């Protein structure tokens, strides 16, 4: 479907997404008699029509409910040496986050495993990174680039796996060679890491907080370096260098932040998926000293991860905690935000387009950071790491002061 | 006699059955018109009734497009004081993102308070598909009523609910009685029809059955305008005939929908959209549909205004307005024609809308050798030959050499553009212009569907084209740098690539 990535930062469909993707466009006939033959024909035609290193067949609601045997259709092509995989992704399986890991595992099992060479050879310092959900996260392209940049700066070789910072399928083929898997999110990617642990005996490091700003980024890099057991000299030099750059700009920003005459917002709420929510909270509290109101996590986190995530909010800083709620329903999000005491000044809402009305009603500010961000145009913007944090500061305070006159 | 629209059945009859709609064809506009046999079909001689079946091309390769359910989101979801409940897995809810944007921008454009769409999904999971989800639907209706106090609730079906045979009708009936507001089930499973325009009809069918007033007080100065979210150009235009406008369906209130039956006449900006509702209003409620070419270009707008004048007994006012407008716009149009000399355009939009836009382009002196329409209805529901928009185009404005019916297939557009090499493109749906961009061709997206309406519309479209031609620098730059994943089997000699890739 083309709409969602269009009205979410106007990201564009990329190389083969959006309106480009071949589709069987099933009709009543296939609902009754099955659509396997139509799929078979579509694959044959697609191979003639389109350039691709890897083809992924997604089964939808119709195919899954009527029981089309997609596996046998696709395996015929796999046997002929076509780089093609299939995944059972009927809409009733759950949201995008669930589907993402289904697809990832399908590619690993049906493609990587088959085409990777020297699977048993592990390369020290090579890591697979599992972090943000492409397209769903408006800023994923820039974020993954920044994540790769800082990890490389600290001395790693990085399989970032998605986006233009990745070397594509060639990178995927080296997944088995990585020293370990790095999951940088509260829960997304954990399944994949566990799967890879079983499959290729790779350990994994789980860091729930995406780093934003110098403090978090340094802490993040030190954790990864420690786990990897690689030489610390390069990472420490990199951190020092990045700090210099970062604080050069922050010093100048101080003039504004310390004495902007017309006042700045002090309290905030974040509405968004668990990864961005937690990351932003850490940054807003520790870097800017903002006051957390209520935090709302919207990605329908599987039950088993919720307590762990909630506990992270108990110690955002030594002296700061925040209330967190898991709510998927946009109406209830609005209701909840209305009930929060944000103090004597209107808050900043870090949210999605759905929160625009609430922000207006609260006479506050809206910074769209989550799906959907329909009033943001995003090219390579990033809000994480060292550079992303500066961009985020620009965005927050441009929003705040442009409302003042 | 045209086929009578049956409002007794719960599910709308789809377009391919009613009108013989096709989604793939290639040839000249005049040939398509001939094969469509509008007049004979209008007299009930359509497919299966002695008339010829319009042949349709089919090939193994197709790209994703749009489904009826999405049209239901944009229409039923855009009624201001109603709620739409999608009885569907969460993925269908992704459509709420674009339609929320369109709704908010549309509200702003028409001067209504801006707010999010009122759209709920029942978020069906695997269990629901096995055991049924009627209780979930009931709960969602209760929530919708409690949260928004709507004047109507629409329920849309989905592929999943269609296949498992959810009985939405009985739930709707039960809740309608409980809350004493219309609760309207809409049959719009993606697989039901090969073209999404059936989704328009599904919404209109539901509104006609459950919202439109049965015995209304007639309002002789009220004109129904069936449209989307476009800017308000009809009010000032029809004010010259002392007529008021009732805009439906997007951005209307439930009361606006209820009073459809009280109007003096019905018009639309595009027969693709208005065909079903307008014909049904005439057949079942005695509201005449204005049977004339659509109001685009001088010929169309003149005839359209005259017909409205006739039906509403305002002939003299219509003539006066036509004369003054001709005089007003002539100088600017002459200037625009001078500036647009030698420019070639291409239209890639819905069916009747494309016919209309080509007329306006030709009035501006722009050369149009090709068009892609997303579908083709050989006849509209009224069957009246005065609504034969393709015939009107070819008769008054000449043939279009490369006329293709193609359901938003990027790979086909790639070939079509190689064939006609236009300087710009008119589009109305996302998904095609990015491909044109890679070929160095700028597109003028017509998000405001009213931009080209009436005499002022000729000027508006001309100005928009000049704006977009200036963007060419950007697109040329992209052309030189970007890659295209569609292989060259789609060559200029055979742009309908299904011929080239038969399995």
Poorly predicted parts of chain B: 489-503
Widest sheet, order of strands of chain A: 9-8-7-10-11
Largest interface: A-B, 55 and 58 residues
Total count of helical runs of at least 4 residues of chain B: 21
Q: Tally the helices of chain A: what do you get? A: 16
Radius of gyration of chain A: 22 Å
Strand content of chain B: 5-15%
Descriptive report:
The complex is a heterodimer of chains A (405) and B (503). Chain A has 405 residues and is of the alpha/beta class. In chain A, 47% of the residues lie in helices and 14% in strands. The longest helix of chain A has 28 residues, at 232-259. Chain A starts with a helix and ends with a helix. With 503 residues, chain B is α/β, with parallel strands linked by helices. Chain B has helices spanning 15-18, 29-36, 38-45, 68-75, 96-110, 126-131, 134-148, 159-164, 168-179, 197-210, 234-239, 254-258, 271-285, 297-311, 315-339, 351-363, 389-397, 410-420, 433-438, 454-470, 472-481, and strands spanning 24-27, 82-86, 119-121, 152-156, 183-186, 222-227, 244-249, 265-268, 344-349, 367-373, 402-406, 424-427, 443-445. In chain B, the strands form 3 sheets. Chain B has a 6-stranded mixed sheet, sandwiched between helices. A 4-stranded parallel sheet of chain B has the order 3-2-4-5, sandwiched between helices. Chain B has a 3-stranded parallel sheet with strand order 7-6-8. In chain B, helix 17 (389-397) links the parallel strand 10 and strand 11. In chain B, helix 7 (134-148) packs parallel to helix 9 (168-179), helix 14 (297-311) runs antiparallel to helix 15 and helix 16 (351-363) runs parallel beside helix 17. Chain B is globular, with a radius of gyration of 22 Å. Classes of the chains: A alpha/beta (405), B alpha/beta (503). At the A-B interface, helix 1, helix 2, helix 3 and helix 4 of A face helix 5, helix 6 and helix 8 of B.
